[in-house]
Amino acid sequence: MLQVCSITKSFKGQTVFSNLDLTVGQGRFHVMIGPSGCGKSTLFDGLTGVFPLDEGRLLWKGEPFADLRHHAAYMQQKDLLLPWFSLLNNALLPAKTSGQDMKAANDRACRLFERLGLKGYESHYANQVSGGMRQRCALVRTLMFNRDLILLDEPLSALDTITRRSLQSLLLLLQTEFKKTILMITHDIEEALFLADEIYLLSARPMSVSSHYVLDLPKPRNSHDPVLTAIKANMLEKLEGDLNHEPG
Amino acid sequence: MNRVNLPAAILVALILGIWEAAVRLLAVPVFILPPPSNIVWVALVQAPRIFPHAVVTFAEILMGVGFAVITAIPLAIVMFAKPSLEKAFSPFLVASQAIPVFALAPLLVVWLGYGMASKVFMAWIIIFFPICVSLLEGFKSCDPEFRMLFRLMGASFFKTLTLLYWPWALPRFFAGLKVGVGVAGIGAVIGEWVGAQKGLGFFMIQSNARLQVDLVFAAILWLTAMGLLLWWLTGVLEKNIVRWK
Questions:
Q1: Which residues of A touch B150 (CB under 8 A)?
Q2: What is the least distance, in Å, from the CA of A131 to any CA of chain B?
Q3: CATH classification number, B37-241, choose in 3.40.1380.10, 1.10.10.10, 3.40.710.10, 1.10.3720.10
Q4: Of A60, A80, A79, A81, whose CA–CA distance to A69 is shortest?
């Protein structure tokens, strides 16, 4: 669906990522893991066209294209809910800005509110609900983009462990129920093992893919599965190795 | 508004008390400095005489504020949308503040006449700048992550303006407006000093010439009350519009 072919980006002589390759297959859940500060979020900015790439190209369904601005929905750690709109109106923003039929969009958003456990909170404001609720709302808004590819930039890292668990199951719904293709950044290995079909392990600056794992195991997963435990051990080893090679 | 600011109330009472006592003990003539109690008394008793003038000044202030708002909003939007235009306009905005507007008052009376127009224009010049600049700063203070979200949603500038930038800037806009309604009276009164047939400024000049200092103070008291009323009304408006703060 999306192919990222050896893209490179430097800022003021500092190479953030170089010769980075990713293949994003339709309907699959991709997770990128890397040490913090390795430029994962910058990669998303590059893919969505915040700045031009120095080298490399992007292919969308085999065709070259400039950036993902009109192809992907985006959700990040901050919920980015506007305080002057109710939760429902926040979720309806993508419909409002892209001129969708508002009646249909409204019905759809209401169904999503029900499905994601927000029923009854449609007219609440962001400051009246918990962090988990706000992220659920951000998730509804992300679905309201009506786009096949979803970019998730550490969407759950601001939440507590328990809330996080329940939201991970909802992220899984993006794939299983809503048939979305997902490219997620996280620094949580457990989260990656729970959700991913494919894991890209990233090395620190300049960032590039150091390992690629394919996890063809049924979901929901049991974290004690020996295959997962083995992959986890392997990833930890590589991450630690990466850290040890860091100068200074 | 419901809570009384006790330290401020004590301070005001103290100043007024000293003023009252000093004037009475030193037997200062009323045409030099009247005691506060006398000023309040005159302001109330002479209300039928002052009121028609106050209405004129109040209308000038309101129109000045109104014009300033309806001109500052489009200019701030245009400058925000096109940074090249901001570069082009900003020296003029700064210059409009550097010019001593009071020096312009006689000219404005020559150009626009003794009626309300010259006073409205004075008020407009003074408050246009704080409103425009605070709104522009409000637009600019928008979080880049929200801009990014709207960009990915494919939102047009107009949609982003109405759904994101405008509400985002509203608190700053009201801060500018509060400053504006506070100083608008200065413009109107100076305009009236220079040449007018009605208004509190005109009334003050007349009373001053007749050594009716108590009436001058009464007019100042009315002006202050009007300024406070406008400031309070702006605050009420803000509370009703900017509910999320």
A1: 97
A2: 17
A3: 1.10.3720.10
A4: A60
Residue A126: closest C-alpha in chain B = B244
Q: How far apart are CA A35 and CA A240, in angstroms?
A: 10
Q: How many CA atoms lie within 13 A of B46 on its CB side?
A: 22
User: What residues of B are in contact with residue A105 (Cβ under 8 Å)?
Assistant: none
A220: preceding bond cis by omega (within 30 degrees): yes
- Per-residue pLDDT of chain B (245 residues), as tens digits, is 456 789 999 999 999 999 999 999 999 998 899 999 999 999 999 999 999 999 999 999 999 999 999 999 999 999 999 999 999 988 888 887 787 878 888 898 889 988 899 999 999 988 998 899 999 999 999 999 899 899 889 899 999 999 999 999 999 999 999 999 988 888 899 999 988 889 999 999 999 999 899 999 999 999 999 999 999 999 999 999 998 87
CATH topology of domain A1-71+149-248: Rossmann fold (3.40.50)
Q: What is the distance in angstroms between the Cα of A234 and the nearest Cα belonging to chain B?
A: 35
Cβ-Cβ pairs closer than 8 A, A with B, add up to 46
SS3 B154: coil
C-alpha distance from A84 to closest chain B C-alpha (Å): 6
The interface predicted TM-score of the complex, written ipTM, equals: 0.85
